[in-house]
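Supplementary Methods S3. Input chains for the assembly prediction are listed below.
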Amino acid sequence: MPVAWPDKEDNELLALVQDGSHPAFAALVERHTDRFYRLAFRYLQNPEAAEDVVQDAFLKLWEDPGKWQPDQNTKFTTWFYRVVVNLCLDWQKRKRPLQLNEDMPLIDERETAEQAMLRREEQRILEREIAALPERQRTALNLCFDAGVSNQVAADVMRINLKALQSLLMRAKATLKERMKSYL
Amino acid sequence: MDRNDDKKLDSLLHSRRSQAASPDLAARIIHKAQGLPQIQRFLLWHLLRQLFIELHLPKPGYVIASALVLGMFLGFSTAPQSFSTTNSDGVNTQSFLADDEGLL
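Predicted structure tokens for the full assembly:
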């Protein structure tokens, strides 16, 4: 789908959304749906739930665009990552624990059946262990290993400094390494 | 910590399952928003923004307007000192007027 108004910055589009512009909202949604979906999927490992969360986040923005305060010197994407992360955490608290979809396609389709099975098992264990991490460590990991989110952006999303983020990542990785010893 | 394990873990983390959103997700969100009303907020920021839009002036205009406002403010704030009257001033003025009336 072509992205409308490519010359307009997010802040300009948001100002129009605050004035009730549907085309500006559509442009924002088309521009950012994929990246926020990717993050939601990382959290929830469930395509329907991830779509619900992203839809919910955008509809909340549409209904109450005044929640976005342009004077806070924060990029829209940083603020919206925070919104999506909070909705994912709420969803996880409200709903059932992580359910992994066994039919999920694997990234490398050239693998043999045996390799694919081993890889699927590895990923299943990895997702289970990530889901068991403390909330902040999980958030740091999901943000930093999501393509396109730099450590600085991840730190901004979590409202912590870079050192604190790196410390969270280190602890998360140490825990995962310990728990996944047999797969490494 | 074993560096090899670190690398393997990083590689595992980078290869986590990823899935693209449904192609119609954005369209569905846009469609749903069309049926939803917006909450109207009367924030100070919005009011100021509207005011600036209504009274849009080129930049030199803002400078002149600010200088005028500042000048008026300084003028009013110093006025009571420069125009203060004392009893002796009052007497002098009255005697001056009395002299004029005498001529008439």
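DSSP finds eight helices and no strands in chain A. Chain A touches chain B through 47 residues (CB under 8 Å).
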